[in-house]
Inverse folding.
């Protein structure tokens, strides 16, 4: 391989001539050569050479690994006409509170003029398929519109910040089979078999009945419930058909 390292100073037609010992030459015919002439449109073209004899009338020197490097030449200047677009009043609003609980949603609504299309975006990233007038937001983030008019993309004039309150699911520990303790020190409500226990709002609760116990923690108007914990409570036996004599008695009774 012979790197030519030719610097082409200006546009024009150039010839590459190669001389070999004993007047030897290496040429290939252009007939049925795929891709000839080799070119980069509007940059360079490698055409075949021409001969005056009858042996070979169209040929090119066999070049390997052709590379063309620009020498910091400026490209042609092309006039560009800027299209001025007036501000499009596309807005978004929340139909309820933008601060929601985990698992809940807030419906966002779009308001935009006729003749344009739009797509919802979260944190300036397009939401796939979100092209309806409303969007149910379930995650924290900044929601806005990307408005399309012709080949231009414009942002909406405002955005909505949605916040999902962070809650940690409480857990219950059991001590001495009946003493229940919540992992949260405050804002507790104890439940037995899914029914709230009246007055049971402290961090601990002594189970008086057997059943499934849970605790609900409330913070920032959001609530989360723990997993169920079954507690067995041994209750005293119920005595029926009790007989007491003598009646009346002075000091001693007999119970059967």
């Amino acid at each position: 391989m012979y790197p030519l390292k030719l610097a082409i100073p200006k546009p024009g037609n150039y010839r590459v001539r190669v001389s070999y010992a004993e007047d030897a030459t290496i040429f290939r015919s252009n007939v049925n050569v795929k891709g000839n002439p080799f070119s980069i449109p509007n940059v360079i073209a490698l055409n075949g050479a021409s001969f005056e004899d009858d042996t070979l009338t169209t040929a090119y020197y066999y070049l390997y690994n052709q590379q063309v490097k620009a020498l910091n030449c400026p490209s042609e200047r092309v006039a560009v006409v800027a299209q001025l677009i007036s501000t499009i009043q596309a807005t978004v609003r929340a139909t309820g509170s933008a601060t929601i609980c985990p698992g809940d949603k807030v419906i966002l609504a779009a308001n935009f003029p006729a003749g344009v299309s739009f797509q919802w975006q979260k944190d300036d990233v397009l939401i796939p398929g979100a092209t309806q007038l409303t969007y149910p937001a379930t995650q924290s983030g900044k929601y806005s519109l990307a408005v399309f008019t012709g080949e231009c993309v414009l942002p909406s004039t405002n955005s909505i910040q949605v916040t999902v309150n962070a809650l940690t699911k409480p857990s219950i520990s059991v001590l001495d089979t009946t003493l229940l303790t919540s992992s949260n020190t405050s804002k507790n409500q104890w439940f037995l078999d899914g029914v709230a226990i009246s007055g049971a709002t402290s961090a601990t609760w002594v189970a008086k009945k057997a059943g499934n116990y849970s605790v609900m923690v409330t913070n920032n108007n959001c609530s989360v419930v723990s997993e169920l914990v079954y507690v067995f409570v041994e209750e005293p036996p119920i005595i029926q058909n009790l007989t007491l004599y003598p009646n009346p008695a002075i000091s001693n009774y007999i119970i059967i």
About this structure: The CA atoms of residues 97 and 106 lie 7 Å apart. The chain has no helices and 24 strands. The chain has a mean pLDDT of 80.
